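Supplementary Methods. Inverse-folding protocol.

Structures were first reduced to a discrete structure-token string of length 144. This string, shown here, constituted the complete conditioning input.
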């Protein structure tokens, strides 16, 4: 099943963590960006949560940290189609995983801008990220 056949809606955006660390010397030629995605579910609410954490680093020391979550409500019929009864798990196809992660990344880009507006940190952007390179397989989440 691909993400085109899964009906969902963005229901909630949360900023779990945001920090700027001002007392480090940022050397532009040493800046790196680390990121990681996570997925979870709320079975009762038929919600899939996609989290992403970004760490901007200079000389391996973080100077911006952002962790955001987007909650997506899944239409009941689509939710049922994701259940693998034999494994008692919700199976998120890679097309859906990458789609939700792309939305969450774009949302995080806006959060970063809003949180750093009118500060010295506003010049640091989330670059375009090919989420498909980071997320290459389906995700299986056990059901209760």
């Amino acid at each position: 099943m691909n993400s085109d056949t899964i009906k969902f809606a963005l229901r909630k955006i949360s900023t779990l963590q945001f920090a700027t660390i001002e007392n480090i010397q940022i050397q532009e030629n040493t800046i790196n960006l680390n990121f990681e995605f996570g997925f979870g579910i709320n079975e009762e609410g038929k919600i899939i949560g996609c989290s992403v954490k970004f760490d901007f680093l200079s000389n391996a020391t973080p100077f911006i940290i952002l962790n955001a979550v987007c909650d997506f409500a899944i239409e009941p019929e689509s939710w049922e189609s994701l259940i693998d009864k034999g494994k008692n798990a919700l199976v998120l196809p890679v097309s859906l995983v990458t789609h939700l992660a792309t939305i969450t990344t774009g949302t995080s880009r806006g959060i970063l801008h809003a949180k750093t507006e009118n500060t010295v940190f506003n010049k640091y952007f989330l670059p375009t990220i090919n989420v498909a390179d980071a997320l290459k397989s389906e995700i299986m989440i056990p059901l209760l």
